[in-house]
Specification:
Blueprint: H1 2-25, H2 28-38, H3 42-63, H4 67-80, H5 88-94, H6 97-108, H7 112-123, H8 127-152, H9 156-169
Length: 182
């Protein structure tokens, strides 16, 4: 009975995290705020969040295939575990986009510009707008994952096992062609 309860709590936490992210990122006020920050309309911002978040998660998943990569991500999540991602408008007002750029460079490495170009083509945004938005979304995603790591007491291998499931919940590996870039 305890094993089933633990499994349900873990599944519930994953769903809560994804629901939080999806609900807030579908909020017209949040989309408008993000759009104003990069000079784009809400529809294009919405499309970028729908494609960009799974792409970042797929990159994180790829990076955790080695024990060193998983440990590196676990340390990064510890640094973001207390980020206030419950309030995305407030979070985005004070997000450190320099940190976001570093996260993206770590996740995608030499393919960062290629990922941005592909996302620009898919969304109708220019590369600068894509970059501006991804540098806000990456720290938000690490904050949400950091909180989940803390609440579930996950270690590096636990995080590595969780990422592919979360990517699927956010629509990753949907055949949009971005996985091949990352």
């Amino acid at each position: 009975v305890m094993i089933i309860a633990d499994y349900l709590n873990e599944e519930e936490l994953k769903m809560d995290l994804m629901s939080l992210i999806k609900d807030q990122l579908n909020n017209p006020g949040v989309l408008k705020q993000l759009g104003q920050s990069i000079g784009a309309d809400s529809d294009k911002v919405s499309k970028l969040t729908q494609l960009g978040l799974p792409t970042i998660l797929e990159g994180l998943t790829r990076n955790t295939r080695t024990p060193e990569g998983a440990e590196s991500l676990a340390c990064a999540l510890d640094q973001h575990q207390d980020d206030e991602v419950d309030d995305l408008p407030g979070f985005f007002n004070k997000v450190d986009t320099n940190d976001g750029a570093k996260i993206l460079d770590h996740v995608f490495g030499s393919k960062t510009k290629q990922v941005q170009k592909k996302l620009a083509g898919e969304t109708g945004l220019n590369k600068s707008q894509v970059s501006g938005l991804l540098t806000k979304l990456a720290p938000m995603l690490l904050g949400a994952l950091g909180r989940q790591k803390k609440e579930q007491g996950l270690d590096a291998s636990g995080i590595a096992g969780l990422l592919p499931q979360l990517s699927g919940l956010l629509g990753g590996s949907s055949g949009n062609g971005l996985a091949g870039v990352t």
